[in-house]
# Entry
Amino acid sequence: MKVGIIGGGQLAQMLAQAGQTTDMSSLAMDFAFVAPEKDACAAAYGKHFVYPYLEPKAKEALENWSDVVTYEFESIPVALVQELEKVKPVHPSSKALTLASDRLNEKNMFNQQGIETARFATVNSLEDLQKAVVEVGLPAILKTRRDGYDGKGQVVLRDESELVAAWDSLAPVACILESMVNFKREVSIVASRNVAGEIAYYPLAENYHREGILRLSLSLQHDPKQQEAQDIIRKVMEDVGYVGTMAVELFDLGDKFAANELSPRVHNSGHWSMDGAIASQFKNHLLAITNQPLQDTSIQNATAMVNLIGGIPDKKAVARIPGAVLYDYGKEPKPGRKVGHINICADGDNDENFVPNIIKVLGMVNQQDLIAELLKSSFYK
# Structure
């Protein structure tokens, strides 16, 4: 089976790594990546077509080489997916991509399904922004409708005096203003759905961000709100006819969830599953898009995932921490750039050193401020 992937970053890399393991399935997989970056970190794991996404040769390469096509992120041209769908199976579909690549479409979809979100309003001009502030209130976040990720393409607004500068920093692109949500915690639900409609749900992850970038995810084995989160992602998957792995980020308001955003792909908050689940989100994505039965998503070890932002710590020091596994994406270190992650797994159900080991890793990556968050989390309790 030849799997073509639009994109050549770390998610494409980890998909290929999962597909090349001996226990993946009886179906051998080869991979090719279309990505304009000559130094794409996934390139070592398959064939690399170095084309811009809208270059006709990009479509031709995937059409001629692939049996099935997927993508690793949503900031790709919908038109490319739509054209490929005419000649090849593409999962997730262009319908899913159209929803997830536009924050306004995404919010409207959630609300149409009866899923709560933050208050929001469309903003296409400074005048729109001024009206939206009256409707939505402050504090709020002005976000570009497309292409923003890891805190990019958004500005926090706390006072009306900030409106002109905020709009000037993002204009002239279409935006959306979202109210700030008073939440108890941020969680995400990851699930995979195959062509036959079978869905496998992963345990919730509790997430901690800094500067808009995910820093720490904690797998939650018996969270009392697991079923509620599953019901939300199931609604979305079934409505869209989704195939592949998806994540929905949620604000826990105490008595209910509010949906933040969905990602039509494998997700950073699911990286813990590489070592903590029986089958990772990457394996199940590949099984889903190739119409195979999904594998067990149960937790085999309680696991925490720490993102590596801007640099890789001393690998020998990490290796001395029991249960710690470091993943180096092979990317050039830059400030604010995700260059790897570390999974820390418990040794059984009563590992007294598990939380201290997480704390050691947080100290190594200068995230000591997250230690207090960890100790008051539902994960620790």
